[in-house]
Amino acid sequence: MTRRYLTANELRLMLERQHGLCAAPACMSEGPFEADHSTPHAWDDKKPDQLLCIECHKAKTKTDIKKIAKVKRIAGGRTQYDKRIERGSRLQSRGFDKTLSKKMDGSVVRK
User: Fold this and answer.
1) CB-based burial label for 51 (10 Å; 0-12, 13-18, 19+)
2) How would you classify residue 106: left for phi > 0, otherwise alpha for psi between -120 and 50, otherwise beta?
3) What is the rounded CA–CA span in Å between residue 68 and residue 87?
4) Which strand (E) or helix (H) includes residue 35?
5) Which residue(s) pair with 31 in the sheet?
6) With left for phi above 0 and alpha for psi between -120 and 50, is residue 31 left, alpha or beta?
């Protein structure tokens, strides 16, 4: 997927449409801005369609990364249901140290 950048004219039109403010609902910042996709770039190959201030862009990117990872997991068949089908319904432990044993009083000793 190639990155698509805004032309100077597209950037100017976007600033006019947003009245020179950040596109985040609660933010009234007047810049500096970073171009952002309202739908994460991993889901569609379109040009950025909104401008966010740097702080809002960082926060949105953080949440987008989590959403993209979840969609990829589900699309790749790696849900909890799929894991149970592969490994069985029981949880798998990492095992334990076979050289240790537990006495009746609760103390642990090496064999």
Assistant:
1) buried
2) left
3) 25
4) strand 33-36
5) none
6) left
pTM over 0.85: no
Rounded-to-integer distance, Cα 19 and Cα 30, Å: 9
Q: Are 51 and 23 in contact (CB under 8 A)?
A: yes
Report the alpha-carbon distance of residue 12 to residue 19 in Å, rounded. Answer: 10
How far is residue 73's CA from residue 79's CA, in Å, rounded to a whole number?
7
Bridge pairing between strands 33-36 and 108-110: unpaired
Q: How far apart are CA 110 and CA 2, in angstroms?
A: 58
User: pLDDT tens, 29-56?
Assistant: 887 888 887 776 666 667 778 888 888 8
